[in-house]
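Per your request, structure below.
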């Protein structure tokens, strides 16, 4: 009897051990991923399979050893155990390049809940030769150039829609017989050149929603809205920069997964509001019969019992306002409550936004120097409060302002590589629409105007011959747009250049004289930070002759900090 069990258990043990040890994360990565990298969601599924297979293998092996009166080579299990855990560590716990985590492909959601994967797709254009098809935007994988371009959708030379022209924006449309939807998550192509700045979600019921800038590294932007039953959803790109706009992925979610449940729609984590009035809203999932008369309790900083504030709302749309909110970081909570005002306990009956600031809101507008090209200090890539990221001086300036003033700030990086002042004129309307709460706009332009070159317009005024199309004309139009939007424009001087770009400095000096004129003529109270003089004296901080390195970006932040009130 023991012999029969032994011969039955030994092969089973060997098979399960092989399944548990050989089918490791790195093994699957080598055979399924284009470059041998898997995302953590997928690895988690592999590990689940591994743990079951390997555990059963251990049990069968130990059973075999016991049946075979101890002569089974148990010591052989030791190296297998070591290999197993080393594989887990190498492939899962210790990623080889955490900085590139956003470029690793991963399954974004369970296919059973993401409605997009069951849709048919039509697009404005696609690139069959490279495999960048519309269907790749609903394959459940967030990826794209510069990693695996065959996992993204890219258009053929399309960007945003040009108003009052025949140029239409890129678009993608998902079609079903009918679905109920309440959330769309949009992932931009992960390369840093092609970037969706604004867009619109359109629905078959005739409704639409504006969409702001998508995160430029493929991270998803979530758009929540009240439930609606539709036959199609379309995303249209209204403004963008780059060459071939597209998406790494679009996800669509709808029917309630859990009832009762609540999800805060606004504000989002790390949002900042300049006003002491804070608007909040939430989406609920309630059964009309079982949860009749239920609502939501919103809390600010723990609610009344903890020195904060709270209010209840039972009528859709679930929303309201906190007033007299101090300049500080705040926590917003939302709790399902029954008809008597009692908090309902459940797996999804509460939601929380852990960091919402009330403070000062800046936007930095400019070219690749503003964007942070050349910054080689990775630790400066994100502000201490996690609110600003991107690699330019902006996150550093946030830290300086927040630490000095004792309340939150945000400095949004809206730098776009290669733009001149005339492109700034075109981009400023969309920038202002993306940041309706912004109070101040920091402007640094002129480096690329010297390439053409664009005439300075020094000493000229509207109506003068030769004024239209000059650097001064363009900058004045940007300033006027900002002031008309109720915001304050602050200007910086054009930085000095070295090496092959040295010849441009003569024109930079003329541009900087124009900036001085514009400050006086527009009664701008902030003296422009003098990037020209600084980098003329610190040329070693311009490694390529044009873009400041990490120390140079720190200096730019300090110069802005010293200039701002």
């Amino acid at each position: 009897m023991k012999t029969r069990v032994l011969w039955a258990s030994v092969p089973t043990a060997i098979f399960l051990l092989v399944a548990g040890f050989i089918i490791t994360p790195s093994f699957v990565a080598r055979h399924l991923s284009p470059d041998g990298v898997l995302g953590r969601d997928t690895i988690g599924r592999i590990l689940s399979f591994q743990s079951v297979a390997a555990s059963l293998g251990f049990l069968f092996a130990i059973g075999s050893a016991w049946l075979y009166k101890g002569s089974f080579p148990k010591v052989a299990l030791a190296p297998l155990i070591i290999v197993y855990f080393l594989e887990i560590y190498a492939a899962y716990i210790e990623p080889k390049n955490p900085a590139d985590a956003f470029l690793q492909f991963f399954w974004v959601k369970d296919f059973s809940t993401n409605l997009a994967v069951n849709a048919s797709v039509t697009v404005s254009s696609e690139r069959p030769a490279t495999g960048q098809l519309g269907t790749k935007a609903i394959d459940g994988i967030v990826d794209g150039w510069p990693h695996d371009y065959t996992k993204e959708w890219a258009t053929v030379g399309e960007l945003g829609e040009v108003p009052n022209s025949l140029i239409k924006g890129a678009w993608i449309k998902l079609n079903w017989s009918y679905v109920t939807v309440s959330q769309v998550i949009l992932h931009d192509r992960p390369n840093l050149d092609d970037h969706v700045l604004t867009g619109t979600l359109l629905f078959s019921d005739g409704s639409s929603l504006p969409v702001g800038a998508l995160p430029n590294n493929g991270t998803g932007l979530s758009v929540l809205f009240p439930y609606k039953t539709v036959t199609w959803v379309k995303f249209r790109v209204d403004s963008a920069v780059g060459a071939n706009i597209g998406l790494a992925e679009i996800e669509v979610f709808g029917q309630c997964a859990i009832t009762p449940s609540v999800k805060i729609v606004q504000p989002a984590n790390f949002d900042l509001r300049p006003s002491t009035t804070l608007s909040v809203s939430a989406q609920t999932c309630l059964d009309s019969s079982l949860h009749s008369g239920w609502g939501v309790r919103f809390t600010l900083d723990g609610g009344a019992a903890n020195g904060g504030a709270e209010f209840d709302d039972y009528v859709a749309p679930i929303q309201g306002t906190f007033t007299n909110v101090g300049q500080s970081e705040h926590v917003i909570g939302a709790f399902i409550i029954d008809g008597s005002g009692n908090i309902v306990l459940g797996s999804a009956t509460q939601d929380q936004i852990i960091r919402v600031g009330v403070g000062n809101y800046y936007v930095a507008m400019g070219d690749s120097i503003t964007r942070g090209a050349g910054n080689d200090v990775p630790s400066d890539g994100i502000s201490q409060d996690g609110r600003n990221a991107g690699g330019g001086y902006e996150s550093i300036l946030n830290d300086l302002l927040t630490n000095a003033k004792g309340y939150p700030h945000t400095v949004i990086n809206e730098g776009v590589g290669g733009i001149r002042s005339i492109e700034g004129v075109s981009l400023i309307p969309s920038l202002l629409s993306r940041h309706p709460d912004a109070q101040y706009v920091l402007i640094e332009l002129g480096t690329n105007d010297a390439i053409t070159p664009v005439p300075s317009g020094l000493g000229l005024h509207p109506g003068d011959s030769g004024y239209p199309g000059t650097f001064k004309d363009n900058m004045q139009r940007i300033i006027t747009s900002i002031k008309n939007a109720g915001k304050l424009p602050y200007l910086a001087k054009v930085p000095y250049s070295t090496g092959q770009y040295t010849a441009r400095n003569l024109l930079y000096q003329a541009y900087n004289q124009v900036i001085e004129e514009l400050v006086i003529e527009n009664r701008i109270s902030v003296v422009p930070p003098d990037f020209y003089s600084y980098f003329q004296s610190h040329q070693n901080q311009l490694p390529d002759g044009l873009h400041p390195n990490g120390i140079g970006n720190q200096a730019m932040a300090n110069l802005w900090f010293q200039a701002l009130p």
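The first strand starts at residue 120 and ends at 123.

Regards,
D.
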